[in-house]
Every structure is written in structure tokens, then in C-alpha cells.
Amino acid sequence: MPSPIAIAATARKIPWRRVLAVSALAYQRGSAAWTALTPDERRRLRDLAAKSKGRPSNLTERERQRVRELAAKALHSARHT
What we know:
Number of strands: 0
Radius of gyration: 13 Å
Structural class: mainly alpha
Shape: elongated
Helix content: over 70%
Largest sheet: none
Order of helices and strands: HHHHH
Number of domains: 1
């Protein structure tokens, strides 16, 4: 198991602003990225973004992973349309 210092160092490398920016863009613009998500996924992404208040530390690791997954799905769809 990695040490707490290694985990903290890795967490600082996460491009969290980019993840949130993609999520916000997908939410606000209703683009192909946003429509790639189901209504439940869009609602979950919106709720997690609101809960985070722009700070990943306000979410559990599982919630942060879900935001990453949803943002990746939306971004993938936007790139392939």
C-alpha cells in the first residue's frame, strides 16, 4: 500500500481544474459531450460538481472517480462527433 505522502503527491498531480472545467462546459453548453450522458449521469455530475464547490477534497475518493469517469465519457463523445 502506498504511503500517505505518496498518495498526497499523486493527488496533487490530478488536473482537477480541467476535470471540473470539462464537466462545467458539458453541463452549460448542452453539447454533444453533454448529450452523451444519460439524464441520470447528467444529474449525478451536476450534484457532484455542486457538492465539490470547486474543491475535490469535498468529495470522497469514489465520488472523485465518478466525476472523472463522467467527464471522460463526455469528452470522448465530444472528440468523436
